[in-house]
Q: What sequence folds into this?
């Protein structure tokens, strides 16, 4: 019976609208950002990529995007925001890893996992594309080459 | 509890249907309901969000390992979280069902189905108030961290009230009180917390620097039955911290002090004649510029297990207590070592030793001290070592020890020294090199040396292990790829040598399949030379992921993410599903 109740909830809710939640996070440079208000340039595509220092596919995805970043941002009005879900165990590795990897992204630290919870992110890598404060595309997981699919999708959005 | 569930259904349905109005595709029927039950005007926009997650297993018999078919083979953990945001208000609830039983070796407090959490928050730019359950972390969590990790079966949310005040960008004050969640109940201790954080950069008009300070207090009040206790019923704990960034350099430190409190004896009972204060110091600094990152972390913890109830509850199997499930634990003391992804590098996993732990006359632990150093270097493209695509190198070293000093078993006491190290618990020295060879080939090689003092950490032999892993991925097309990984571990004791391999096939961005096996061929006992094979696949689309696995799980003390459990050997099928809306 309870399973049915659960399923009912789930099926109804699946149609709900998707606006970016208003959550404040610190960046790796200790600056405060509101993920809704501070990433709201009209018609610009914001790619929020959830990652962690211990998540190998996440690092591969962000490396792969980095290899194409100059080209992509020339062709599209887009920006990648890398949201680290590292907790106290691994959070200290974020900063050195970033520059070791030469990522040009804005990096946000979701240490208390507020944004992760607000978006019900179960596993990383997890990518959402935000346009005009609305979530227009969601993708979870990464397999090698999937960044090209993301790029094709971005061109359509 | 059942009644409560059903009461909630109409409420949820009402608001959800209302939220639907903002979407264009609707049947007239649904619209009608929406109009009938709408509690807010049409354009006000209730944001509804949440997710569903289910992890289920079906244990089977395994003749190869002499495992019989279990009596209760089907188990599942299910979570349904839904939140409603309307203007400055947010409300949410999480329903949880552990049916027919929770996954094997999860906290027995998670039993049946019910309301796991519920909360109501009012939030403005400067002020935020929450009633109900909430998650929180002060500083690095060495005094307080209330968190959830479904994969580990941890939920230590606090039930009570919390207020956050941010008068401007540079100040943040948090005050909270409540009781910590344990299963579907809450633990006995009453928790009081206060945290403050001040950023001084704008005060000093720093341009390229950033300086912030923080101070926190956590109090736990729990009545005790012990006559004439030698400790206070209210245990106070304080912490101070700073964080400094200047250009490519950064440094931070945090000191935590916990007032004297009764220490647990070998049977995990409160010992009124063994009363000690606790402390923890965490220091971190590093240098990070384009292409190079160096980071060093040191931590010393003494008697720093901070529980929301002094005495852990026994689970009745004579082996485990609530400590094994990270239940009723107020603070967060993760092991500061590299989290490896190789299967064999996760056999000897270090767990931080925050607790005073006397295992016997020769093995008396007061805490831990040690550190970790990371170096990341990127050899640029078009250089001798970098090659056409660049080469990425990561080095990591960590070593952890008991606190130096004098220990006495009976009557129990100790006197530690601040500097220096005691018996070595663990060390891990590793190097990782990643190189793209061409547009289609990506390769990586890892070497890991581990020392694991099993005698001191869980009972057994000291182990020295060397692990070599090589992996390569090849793209057939843009989206179709294969990943191969081979690994080997040379270990001089315990279960000795292992070999392993993984093949992972990504058909496209939606379907992936894998098969892996680790083989304990070096085990001295021939019967224990087992293949632990696993095969599975996953389907991903949008926010949804469905994964299926069949295979053999290792038994014994299995430690993941700060939780160590005695896990029986098992073989079976597992299914996990997660989605968000």
A:
């Amino acid at each position: 019976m309870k399973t049915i109740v659960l399923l009912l909830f789930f099926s109804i809710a699946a149609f709900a609208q998707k606006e970016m939640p208003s959550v404040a996070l610190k960046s790796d440079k200790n600056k405060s950002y509101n993920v809704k208000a501070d990433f709201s340039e009209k018609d610009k595509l914001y790619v929020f990529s959830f990652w962690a220092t211990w998540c190998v596919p996440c690092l591969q995805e962000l490396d792969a995007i980095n290899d194409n970043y100059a080209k992509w941002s020339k062709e599209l009005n887009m920006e990648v925001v890398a949201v680290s879900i590292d907790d106290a165990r691994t959070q200290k590795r974020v900063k050195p890893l970033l520059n070791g990897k030469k990522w040009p992204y804005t990096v946000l630290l979701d240490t208390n996992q507020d944004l992760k919870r607000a978006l019900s992110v179960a596993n990383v890598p997890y990518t959402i594309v935000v346009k005009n404060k609305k979530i227009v595309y969601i993708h979870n997981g990464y397999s090698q080459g999937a960044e090209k699919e993301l790029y094709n999708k971005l061109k359509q959005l | 509890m059942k009644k409560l569930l059903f009461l909630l259904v109409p409420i949820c349905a009402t608001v959800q249907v209302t939220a639907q109005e903002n979407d264009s595709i609707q049947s007239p029927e649904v619209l009608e309901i929406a109009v009938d039950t709408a509690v807010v005007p049409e354009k006000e926009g209730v944001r509804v969000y949440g997710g569903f997650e289910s992890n289920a297993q079906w244990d089977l018999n395994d003749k190869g390992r002499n495992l019989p078919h279990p009596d209760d083979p089907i188990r599942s953990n299910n979570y349904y979280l839904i939140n409603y945001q309307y203007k400055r208000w947010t409300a949410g609830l999480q329903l949880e069902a552990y049916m027919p039983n929770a996954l094997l070796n999860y906290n027995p407090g998670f039993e049946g189905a019910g309301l796991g959490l519920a909360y109501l928050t009012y939030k403005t730019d400067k002020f935020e108030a929450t009633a109900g359950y909430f998650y929180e972390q002060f500083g690095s969590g060495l005094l307080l961290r209330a968190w959830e990790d479904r994969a580990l079966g941890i939920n230590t949310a606090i039930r009570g009230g919390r207020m956050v005040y941010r008068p401007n960008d540079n100040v943040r004050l948090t005050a909270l009180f409540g009781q910590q969640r344990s299963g579907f109940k809450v633990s006995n201790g009453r928790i009081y917390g206060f945290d403050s954080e001040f950023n001084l950069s704008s005060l000093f008009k720093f341009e390229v620097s950033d300086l912030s300070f923080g101070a926190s207090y956590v109090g736990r009040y729990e009545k005790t039955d012990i006559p004439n206790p030698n400790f206070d019923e209210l245990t106070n704990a304080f912490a101070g911290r700073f964080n400094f960034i200047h250009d490519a350099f950064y440094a931070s430190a945090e000191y935590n002090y916990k007032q004297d409190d009764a220490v647990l004896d070998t049977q995990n009972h409160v010992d009124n004649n063994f009363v000690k204060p606790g402390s923890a110091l965490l220091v971190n600094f590093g240098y990070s510029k384009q292409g190079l990152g160096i980071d060093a972390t040191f931590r010393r913890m003494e008697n720093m297990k901070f529980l929301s109830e002094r005495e852990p509850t026994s689970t009745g199997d004579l082996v485990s207590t609530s400590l094994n499930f990270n239940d009723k634990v107020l603070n967060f003391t993760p092991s500061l070592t590299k989290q490896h992804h190789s299967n064999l590098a996760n056999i000897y996993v270090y767990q931080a030793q925050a607790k005073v732990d006397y295992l016997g006359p020769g093995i008396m632990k007061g805490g831990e001290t040690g550190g970790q150093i990371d170096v990341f270097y990127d050899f640029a493209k078009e250089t001798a070592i970098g090659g056409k695509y660049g080469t990425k190198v990561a080095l990591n070293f960590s070593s952890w020890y008991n606190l130096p000093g004098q220990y006495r078993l009976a009557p129990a006491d100790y006197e530690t020294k601040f500097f220096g190290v005691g018996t070595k618990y663990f060390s891990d020295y590793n190097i990782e090199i990643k190189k793209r060879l061409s547009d289609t080939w990506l390769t990586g090689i890892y070497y890991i040396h581990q020392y694991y003092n099993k005698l001191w950490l869980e009972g057994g032999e000291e182990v020295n292990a060397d692990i070599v892993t090589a992996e390569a991925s090849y793209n057939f097309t843009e989206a179709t790829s294969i990943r191969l990984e081979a690994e080997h571990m040379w270990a001089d004791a315990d279960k000795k040598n292992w070999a392993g391999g993984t093949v992972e096939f990504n058909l496209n961005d939606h379907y992936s399949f894998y098969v892996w096996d680790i083989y304990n061929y070096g085990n001295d006992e021939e019967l224990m030379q087992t293949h632990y094979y696993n095969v599975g696949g996953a389907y991903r689309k949008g926010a949804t992921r469905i994964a299926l696995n069949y295979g053999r799980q290792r038994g014994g003390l299995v430690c993941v993410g700060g939780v160590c459990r005695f896990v029986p050997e098992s073989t079976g099928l597992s299914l996990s599903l997660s989605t968000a809306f």
Observations:
- Confidence is low (pLDDT under 50) at residues 10-17 of chain A.
- The beta strands of chain A are 24-27, 32-34, 45-51, 78-84, 106-109, 126-131, 134-140.
- The longest strand of chain A covers residues 45-51.
- Chain A touches chain B through 62 residues (CB under 8 Å).
